[in-house]
Amino acid sequence: MLKFSYTALAILAATAAVAEETRQLDAHEHGTGTLDIAFDGDRIAMELHAPGADIVGFEYGAKSAEDRAAVDAAVATLARPLDLFALPAAAGCSVIEASASLESEEDEDHDAHADDDHDHDHEEHADEGHDDDDHAAHADDDHDAVSHTEFHAEYMLKCADPAQATKIDFAYFASFPNALELEVQIISDRGATGFEVARDAPTLDLRDMF
């Protein structure tokens, strides 16, 4: 977690709470990520969540050298917010802090079911003469099938004239060809507003936010 100012953190937390309701209704939809943005004085706090498939084209945990290289490259790209979410030069924005990482979560219900299947399958395999290595490989395949990865990035920008941040150009879509849409939640001193920014219309007009 970046060291946001108390106000920016509170605003962003409120923004994220609204976005979370949307995410839970349509959880982990491939092609769709979320971007929460809070304007607080001369600071802009941003938080991005995107499915692994959108960013690197796969959702299983990186195993091969090629997979790991793809994840490393994606994290490096995500750590450069102004290359992905370009603001007008007149706003004079610069990056104070940025972090990006790959996170994963498992389907707990499936894990519990897998434990039940493990005992049953193991007994069947034993009767059929299969060895434990075959069973372990099968378990690994099942494990990969329910593994979901998500990229998470947080940014803090400082702008000389934040009122000039009247639009955002989403080069994000050019950087990540599998990404189709971002659900954007924005809070400024005029209140909270939600947007959907799509690949075929990658510019967000923010003039009504100031």
In short:
This protein is of the alpha+beta class and 210 residues long. It is built from seven helices and nine strands. The model is unreliable at 1-7, 21-27 and 107-146 (pLDDT under 50).
Main sheet record: 6 strands, mixed
List unreliable stretches of 5+ residues: 1-7, 21-27, 107-146
Strand neighbour order, sheet with most strands = 4-5-2-1-7-8
Helix content: 25-40%
The termini sit apart by 27 Å
Count of structural domains? 2
β-strand percent reads 25-35%
Compute the average pLDDT: 78
Radius of gyration: 21 Å
Structural class: alpha+beta
- Number of H- or I-type helical stretches: 7
Record field, number of beta strands: 9
Give an overview in words.
The chain has helices at 6-25, 52-56, 65-78, 81-84, 108-128, 132-145, 172-175; strands spanning 32-40, 43-51, 85-86, 93-106, 147-159, 167-170, 181-188, 191-198, 203-205. The chain is globular, with a radius of gyration of 21 Å. The protein is built from 7 helices and 9 strands, in the order H-E-E-H-H-H-E-E-H-H-E-E-H-E-E-E. By secondary structure, it is an alpha+beta fold. 39% of the residues lie in helices and 33% in strands. Strand 1 and strand 2 form a beta hairpin. The chain has 2 domains: 6-104 and 152-209, no CATH class; 109-142, no CATH class. The two termini are 27 Å apart. The strands form 2 sheets. Strands 4-5-2-1-7-8 form a 6-stranded mixed beta sheet, sandwiched between helices. The chain has a 3-stranded antiparallel beta sheet with strand order 3-6-9. The model is unreliable at 1-7, 21-27 and 107-146 (pLDDT under 50).
